[in-house]
Design a protein that fits this description.
The complex is a heterodimer of chains A (183) and B (325). With 183 residues, chain A is mainly α. Chain A has seven helices and no strands. The N and C termini of chain A lie far apart (74 Å). In chain A, 35% of the residues are buried. Chain B has 325 residues and is mostly helical. Chain B has a domain of 90 residues. Chain B is built from 14 helices and four strands. In chain B, helix 4 crosses helix 5. Chain B is globular, with a radius of gyration of 25 Å. Classes of the chains: A mainly alpha (183), B mainly alpha (325). Chains A and B meet through helix 1, helix 2 and helix 3 of A and helix 1 of B.
C-alpha cells in the first residue's frame, strides 16, 4: 500500500525527526572514564578478552564485564602489573599493525585470534616484545580474564553472575550454617 | 512564511521528542521523588559530588564506583534505619515488635545457641550484615564454652536487621555503570523497580527478590513443593536448610504436611511477622469437627507445641481417620 504524504503529515514527520535530533546526541555523548586504562586501551582489552572467552549460547567476557574487573584490579590489588599492561597493550597494537595493518579492535575475529596465537607462542612481531615477553603478557591477561569471568562479582567482573548462571550455580547460595539440628 | 514554518517545525519537534522521551521513561520508584538530603548527611553528599566531578559531568558513576568511593558503613546504615521510620512509622513499629527486632546482644550472646555452635563470621550475614568488622569484634570468645561478652559495649543495642536489609532504596537503574560502552549492570531476571530483596554482606550488594535463587528443599529423597511466591526467596536466605537442603535442618522452616506449598507470607505479616489472624483466613473459627483453630497451640517456635503449624499433618487434628466408604 502506498503511503500518501499531505503537507500536514510531512510537517509532522519532519518535526518529529528534527526534534529527536536535539535529544539523541545528548544520550550518546557520555564520557568514558576508567580507573587505569585509557579509552583506547579499554577498547583493546575488551576485544582481547572477548576472544579469550567469546560469547556463544552463553555470555562471553564482554557480557561479563571482564574489562571492569581488570581495570578495577589494576588500580588496586594488581597495581604491580600496571606497567606490564601498559607496555603489553602497546605491543599488541604494534603486532596487529605489523601483521594486518590495523588496530586489534578493528580486525576480524579470525585475525584477532592469529595475533593472540602469535603472542601466546612468543613469536609476535614488534619492537615492544624486546622489552617484555609476549607469551608472558598473554598468560597474564588470559589469567585475569578467567578470574574476571569466573570469580566473585564483588571484584568487578562476572557481571550479572554470568558464569555462575552458565555453570548452574545458585547465587547467593541458600545454605544454613548451623551444624546442629533444630529439632 | 518560511520563518513560521521553521518555528512550527522546531517547536513541534521538541514537543514530539519530549513526549517520546517521557513515555519511554520507566516507572520510577517512590523514593525517586525525594531529595538526596532527605536520607544522606552532608558529608556523604559531598563525597558523592566529588566522585561525579572526578568521573566527569556526564559519566554517571556505577554502583561499583560508588561503593569504592563511599563504602557502606554501619553507622550510616543504622542512622538510615531511623530515617525510614520518619515516613514509614507504622511499618517501623511493626518491625520493632517482631522477632526480627533483634539486637546484637540478643544475637551474639545467645547462650543456648553459642553452647551448640561457636559464633563465627558467617553469623554476620544475617545478624549484622552492615557491621564493619568481623565476629571477633562483636563477641568473644569464639567458642562453645563461653562466657561470652561483647568487647564493644556500645554495640549491644544495635539492631541486627535493618529496613535496608530487605529493602533496596536505590534500584540498579538509578546509577549507570562506569562505561556506557558496555551493557548496563543488570541482574538477569531482575526488574528496575524491585524493592524487596536481600542485602548480601559478602557481595556488598542488594539482590532483588526475583534475582535470588528459588529454594529447593527435600524430605529424604522427596522434593517438597514450595510456593511460587518470589518473596520466600528472601526468607530462605537466612532461614535456610543446611548444605544437603533437607527440611528441618539448620534454620529451615519449610512447611510440610497439610500446609506444604504455602508462602511464608500467607500467614506472616510482612513487618510484624504476626500470624494471629492467619488461621481464620482459611479455617472457620469453630470448624465442623468442633476445633477452634484460633485457640490451637500451633506455634512453630516451641518444641512443646502440639500442633506445630510448619509440620502439621491431618492426623494432628483428626485423630480418627474416617473409614473408607
Amino acid at each position: 500500500m502506498a503511503i500518501k504524504y499531505n503537507r500536514r503529515r510531512f510537517v509532522k514527520t519532519v518535526a518529529a525527526g528534527v526534534g529527536s535530533a536535539f535529544l539523541l546526541p545528548t544520550r550518546g555523548a557520555d564520557v568514558i572514564v576508567w580507573r587505569f586504562f585509557t579509552n583506547a586501551e579499554a577498547r583493546l582489552v575488551d576485544a582481547i578478552t572477548e576472544q579469550i572467552i567469546p560469547a556463544d549460547q552463553d555470555p562471553g567476557a564482554r557480557d561479563a564485564g571482564v574489562i571492569n574487573f581488570i581495570d578495577k584490579q589494576l588500580a588496586s590489588r594488581l597495581r604491580r602489573h600496571q606497567q606490564v599492561y601498559r607496555v603489553g597493550l602497546a605491543g599488541v597494537e604494534e603486532t596487529s599493525r605489523v601483521m594486518f595493518k590495523e588496530d586489534f579492535a578493528a580486525l576480524k575475529a579470525e585475525q584477532q585470534v592469529e595475533v593472540l596465537k602469535a603472542l601466546e607462542s612468543g613469536k609476535a612481531k614488534g619492537e615492544t616484545w624486546r622489552k617484555q615477553s609476549s607469551s608472558a603478557f598473554f598468560r597474564l591477561i588470559r589469567d585475569h580474564t578467567m578470574a574476571g569471568f569466573y570469580g566473585g562479582p564483588q571484584h568487578g567482573g562476572n557481571r550479572g553472575y554470568a558464569s555462575y548462571k552458565m555453570l548452574g550455580l545458585d547465587y547467593p547460595q541458600i545454605i544454613g550454617q548451623n551444624r546442629y539440628r533444630r529439632k | 512564511m518560511m520563518k513560521t514554518f521553521l518555528k512550527t517545525t522546531l517547536l513541534a519537534g521538541v514537543w514530539a521528542s519530549c513526549a517520546l522521551a517521557f513515555t519511554a521513561e520507566p516507572k520510577l520508584p517512590a523514593h525517586s521523588q525525594l531529595d538526596c538530603a532527605n536520607c544522606h548527611d552532608t558529608a556523604t553528599l559531598d563525597r558523592f559530588s566529588q566522585l561525579q566531578k572526578q568521573l566527569g559531568k556526564n559519566a554517571a558513576p556505577g554502583w561499583d564506583r560508588v561503593a569504592e568511593a563511599m563504602p557502606l558503613n554501619e553507622a550510616a546504615m543504622q542512622a538510615l534505619g531511623a530515617k525510614c521510620a520518619d515516613c514509614h512509622a507504622e511499618k517501623a513499629k511493626d518491625l520493632a515488635a517482631s522477632g526480627h527486632a533483634l539486637t546484637y546482644a540478643q544475637s551474639f550472646l545467645n547462650r543456648e545457641h553459642n553452647r551448640m555452635e561457636p559464633p563465627m563470621d558467617d553469623c554476620l550475614r544475617c545478624h549484622a550484615m552492615f557491621f564493619d568488622g568481623t565476629s571477633r569484634d562483636l563477641v568473644t570468645p569464639l567458642d562453645t564454652r563461653g562466657p561470652w561478652r561483647m568487647p564493644h559495649a556500645e554495640l549491644t543495642g544495635h539492631r541486627s536487621i535493618l529496613c535496608v536489609s530487605c529493602h533496596q532504596i536505590h534500584p540498579e537503574c538509578w546509577l549507570s555503570p562506569p562505561s556506557k560502552s558496555v551493557e548496563p549492570v543488570k541482574l538477569v531476571g531482575g526488574t528496575a523497580t524491585s524493592k524487596a530483596g536481600f542485602f548480601d554482606r559478602r557481595e556488598h550488594r542488594f539482590f532483588p527478590a526475583d534475582c535470588l535463587p528459588h529454594p529447593k528443599v527435600f524430605k529424604g529423597g522427596k522434593l517438597l513443593k514450595l510456593s511460587d511466591d518470589v518473596r520466600i526467596r528472601i526468607c530462605y536466605q537466612c532461614h535456610a536448610p543446611s548444605a544437603a537442603h533437607q527440611t528441618g535442618t539448620s534454620d529451615d522452616r519449610t512447611l510440610r504436611g497439610i500446609h506444604e506449598s504455602m508462602s511464608c507470607l500467607d500467614c506472616h505479616a510482612t513487618h510484624s511477622l504476626d500470624t494471629r489472624a492467619a488461621c481464620a483466613q482459611c479455617h472457620p473459627a469453630a470448624s465442623h469437627c468442633g476445633l477452634d483453630v484460633t485457640r490451637m497451640d500451633t506455634t512453630a517456635r516451641a518444641k512443646s507445641s502440639k500442633h506445630d503449624i510448619h509440620n502439621m499433618t491431618c492426623t494432628d487434628c483428626h485423630a480418627k481417620v474416617p473409614k473408607a466408604r
